[in-house]
């Protein structure tokens, strides 16, 4: 019996979710089916409202081989596992004559550890605390959270932190979870047979579709030890986030706090000589970090080199000692030893990595107001890593609403290790360094030119290093007033968002919410519930707000969001492009800004009835040579630089919303 056509399957799935099939969704499904069948790679830009999850799930389920779907955000993972997959599987079952299984898989620290829960927290975390699990009436927030976790452990089937409602603090969760390095292993753990993380892995091994996150995908690719079951197809949703997530996983960090923690955990388990060696190295490193100034280290200072050599050598000595000693007086010594080993391995490995870094690594000091200085090392580029680890032995489909930057896919493709579209080897012929791929833009169901206006305030002074731009704040106040509130303010820095909120709270009789003054979820809820309310903030708002309807009719960007000139990693990447004859500014800074602006502009139109304005209060978007590249990355709104026109339009949209 022949397989049903992907169009027939898609129609059944769309009907099951009470949706409407869209041309872009159908085009995407057919392209994904072709890529899966031929083993080629595909980049698909699918605008908001396309229904891209069904566009890839239907052909993936129809293929019959194991598929991994990796997303960047928790809401999308939940949507896939709790809504899209159950309905799609049910709809396709009669046509496929089989019922595909699906499962979600996360990193080990996302699951409750029964060993930690029942045996307690090893070493120093317990010091100075009451025993929370024996106290009938804990008085602290931590104690209350821990008792809730104990009760929840008897009820939960998954042990997944994200299934705990309401949630608990990171500190509380840290008491009942372990990293993969700290885990005893199912065969050595008294609770191995009941382990939530192991159960999730077993479910994943039996599933046809495994939903995971970018970070776990990166760990699976980078660390060599397979975390995900073998699979023939990889689908990366929210793919515009992949490079930054992989970079985060590939970044090593040393802080005085992490080194001191390793010292506390290790010294009780090793001989006095090894402990003293580690303590001395730790003190030397801490004194050095007190004087560290933020910025890139193009060469390793001699004092830092000596400090790292001392840490590395002391770490190696302690690791050796940990393997040779046993202390029967320490209750549950295996767990204590495993945690100590994980801490000192991290110190040793990062010190070794910095000492032997190559031209393809970037090292820098970073300083945080609360946590102090840290030493970081990251790969100059992850493109080679992705090309080697991601695009071999499987078909890869990457999708997002923002993959075309400046009008084509080549910028995003290059960051993933792909040659310009159309250049590359054929899998059926000789192997080449760059795998073949295809880019496809399936458009959006929205009529952007009729639904939205892109306004650039070209008459303003360009942003500089000054703390405030008076004319920009005047312009912002006039736009918000014309819109009657209804404004999402996207700022390139928290300082800018705070200054704007304070200024407009004094000028306008409208509620102005500011990121950081409440949880993000609560701020977005309040913004969505009240038409007059405005919400100002920075990075997470550029990509994380979905408020369809009349309560978000003005999206304002204070400036083009270029990376900070002193950002060590971005500036190093820009310099590397220039040294090979490329345009570092366009390849790195402009591409970074284009991606954020495309995401930010996408906050405006979330449904077919939405109307509004995206206002960019930075004249460079109109005047600078790179302005056209940035505008081409944004939705195709009707374009104007006339402030009077845009204020009249905002007032009309506001009036129409009030009459509705």
TrEMBL record:
Signal peptide: none annotated. It catalyses: ATP + H2O = ADP + phosphate + H(+). Residues 11-288 form the Helicase ATP-binding domain. Residues 420-441 are annotated as: Disordered. Its cofactor is [4Fe-4S] cluster. It comes from the Bacteria. GO terms for molecular function: helicase activity. Keywords: ATP-binding, Helicase, Hydrolase, Nucleotide-binding. InterPro entries: ATP-dep_Helicase_C (IPR006555), DEAD/DEAH_box_helicase_dom (IPR011545), DinG/Rad3-like (IPR045028), Helic_SF1/SF2_ATP-bd_DinG/Rad3 (IPR014013), Helicase_ATP-bd (IPR014001), P-loop_NTPase (IPR027417). SUPFAM superfamilies: P-loop containing nucleoside triphosphate hydrolases. Its EC number is 5.6.2.3. Belongs to the helicase family. DinG subfamily. This is DNA 5'-3' helicase.
């Amino acid at each position: 019996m022949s397989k049903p056509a992907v169009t027939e399957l898609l129609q059944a799935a769309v009907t099951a979710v009470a949706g409407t099939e869209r041309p872009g969704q159908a085009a995407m499904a057919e392209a994904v089916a072709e890529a899966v069948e031929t083993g080629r790679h595909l980049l698909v830009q699918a605008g908001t409202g396309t229904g891209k999850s069904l566009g890839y799930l239907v052909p993936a389920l129809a293929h019959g081989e194991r598929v991994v779907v990796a997303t960047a955000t928790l809401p999308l993972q939940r949507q896939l596992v709790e809504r899209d997959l159950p309905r799609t599987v049910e709809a396709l079952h009669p046509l496929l004559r089989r019922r595909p299984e699906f499962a979600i898989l996360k990193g080990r620290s996302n699951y409750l550890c029964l060993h930690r829960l029942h045996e307690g927290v090893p070493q120093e975390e317990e010091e100075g605390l009451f025993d929370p699990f024996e106290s009938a009436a804990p008085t602290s927030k931590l104690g209350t959270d821990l008792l809730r976790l104990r009760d929840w452990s008897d009820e939960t089937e998954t042990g997944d932190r994200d299934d705990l409602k309401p949630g608990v603090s990171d500190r509380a969760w840290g008491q009942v979870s372990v990293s993969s390095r700290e885990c005893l292993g199912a065969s050595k753990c008294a609770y191995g047979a009941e382990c939530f993380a192991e159960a999730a892995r077993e479910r994943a091994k039996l599933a046809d579709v495994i939903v995971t996150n970018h970070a776990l995908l990166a760990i699976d690719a980078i660390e060599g030890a397979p975390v995900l079951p073998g699979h023939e197809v990889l689908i990366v949703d929210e793919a515009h986030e992949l490079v930054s997530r992989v970079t985060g996983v590939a970044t090593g960090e040393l802080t005085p706090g992490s080194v001191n923690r390793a010292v506390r955990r290790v010294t009780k388990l090793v001989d006095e000589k090894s402990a003293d060696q580690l303590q001395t190295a730790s003190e030397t490193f801490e004194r050095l970090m007190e004087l560290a100034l933020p910025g890139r280290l193009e060469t390793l200072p001699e004092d830092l080199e000596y400090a790292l050599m001392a840490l590395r050598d002391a770490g190696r000595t302690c690791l050796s000692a940990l393997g040779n000693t046993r202390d029967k007086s320490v209750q549950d010594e295996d767990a204590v030893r495993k945690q100590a080993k994980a801490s000192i391995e991290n110190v040793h490995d990062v010190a070794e990595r910095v000492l032997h870094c190559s031209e393809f690594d970037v090292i820098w000091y970073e300083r945080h107001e609360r946590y102090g200085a840290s030493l970081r090392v990251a790969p100059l580029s992850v493109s080679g890593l992705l090309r080697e680890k991601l695009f071999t032995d499987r078909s890869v489909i990457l999708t997002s609403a923002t993959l075309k930057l400046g009008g084509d896919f080549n910028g995003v493709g290059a960051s993933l290790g792909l040659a310009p579209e159309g250049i590359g080897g054929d899998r059926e012929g000789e192997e080449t360094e760059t795998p073949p791929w295809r880019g496809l833009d399936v458009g959006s169901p929205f009529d952007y030119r009729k639904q939205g206006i892109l306004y650039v305030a070209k008459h303003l002074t360009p942003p500089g290093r000054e703390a405030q731009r008076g004319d920009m704040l005047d312009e912002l106040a006039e736009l918000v007033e014309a819109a009657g509130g209804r404004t999402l303010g996207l700022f390139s820095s928290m300082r800018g968002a705070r200054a704007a909120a304070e200024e407009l709270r004094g000028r306008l009789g409208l509620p102005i919410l500011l990121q950081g003054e409440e949880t993000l979820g609560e701020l977005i809820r309040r913004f969505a519930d009240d038409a007059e309310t405005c919400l100002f903030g920075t990075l997470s708002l550029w990509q994380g707000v979905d408020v369809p309807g009349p309560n978000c009719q003005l999206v304002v960007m204070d400036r083009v969001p270029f990376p900070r000139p002193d950002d060590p990693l971005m500036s190093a990447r820009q310099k590397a492009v220039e040294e090979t004859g490329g345009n570092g500014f366009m390849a790195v800074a402009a591409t970074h800004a284009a991606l954020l602006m495309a995401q930010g502009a996408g906050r405006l139109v979330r449904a077919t009835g939405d109307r509004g304005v995206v206002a960019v209060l930075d004249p460079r978007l109109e005047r600078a040579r790179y302005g056209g590249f940035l505008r081409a990355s944004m939705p195709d709104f009707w374009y104007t630089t006339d402030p009077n026109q845009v204020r009249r339009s905002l007032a009309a949209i506001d009036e129409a919303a009030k009459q509705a």
